[in-house]
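Researcher: I'd like a candidate sequence for this fold, 245 residues long. If you have to choose between options at a position, lean toward the conservative one.
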């Protein structure tokens, strides 16, 4: 059951307080997604919204922002909706979908003790479990990853979603945190929508084996790339891409 967690700058419902505090620190304190240079009323895509902390962060900084938030895990999506209601937030369209290179249905592996790690690529989580077991006690790692469940979730191409919402003229910020499916999300954009994207920030893991392809794709679309390795684990990267004007 979701519990209310209080932070210095906001509050939210969460299934895992420890995970929520970790994500809050990343977003609100460490500012891993730098949105300081956005226009006053940006249009933002939140791919892998989880319980909504990034959307709350954007609306805190830019009250006039419009956001489309995607979260395929049913339980996380419900908590996301509760958090938007908790803060009376408007102009955030929450969709119970994942993003991919093509529309369809996939199995999502859901971790109730660590919902932000839920994924359609569970093979990577086996390696993450091994890493967690090295960094922590074996029992603690098992607790976080045990009792996994599988759900059928709907996936959609981002361009298909955007084509049904033609009122925007630019995509100021595309945030992607999708547990191994980052390249698939990017491949779901058509050229006409790529031309509207100004900034992309995503998290990826070397074990996924797609970092070079991600960076190559972003470079080919006219972005300048910066990367920074996460301080909390080797091989995790934040990739920031900005449009060359």
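Model: Candidate sequence:
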């Amino acid at each position: 059951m979701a519990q209310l967690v209080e932070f210095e700058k906001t509050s939210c419902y969460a299934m895992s307080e420890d995970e929520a505090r970790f994500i809050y620190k990343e977003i609100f304190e460490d500012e891993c997604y730098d949105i300081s240079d956005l226009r006053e009323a940006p249009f933002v895509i939140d791919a892998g919204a989880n319980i909504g902390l990034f959307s709350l962060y954007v609306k805190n900084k830019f009250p006039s922002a419009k956001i489309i938030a995607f979260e395929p895990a049913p339980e996380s999506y419900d908590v996301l909706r509760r958090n938007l209601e908790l803060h009376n937030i408007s102009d955030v369209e929450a969709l119970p979908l994942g993003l991919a290179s093509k529309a369809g249905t996939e199995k999502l592996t859901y971790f109730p003790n660590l919902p932000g790690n839920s994924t359609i690529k569970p093979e990577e989580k086996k390696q993450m479990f091994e890493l967690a077991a090295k960094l922590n006690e074996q029992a603690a790692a098992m607790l976080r990853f045990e009792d996994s469940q599988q759900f059928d979730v709907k996936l959609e191409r981002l361009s298909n979603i955007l084509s049904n919402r033609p009122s925007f003229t630019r995509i100021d910020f595309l945030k992607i945190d999708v547990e191994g499916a980052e390249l698939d999300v990017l491949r779901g954009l058509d050229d006409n929508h790529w031309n509207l994207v100004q900034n992309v920030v995503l998290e990826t893991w070397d074990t996924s084996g797609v970092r070079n392809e991600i960076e190559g794709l972003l470079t080919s679309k006219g972005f300048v790339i910066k990367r920074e390795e996460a301080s909390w684990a080797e091989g995790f990267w934040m990739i920031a891409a900005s449009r060359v004007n």
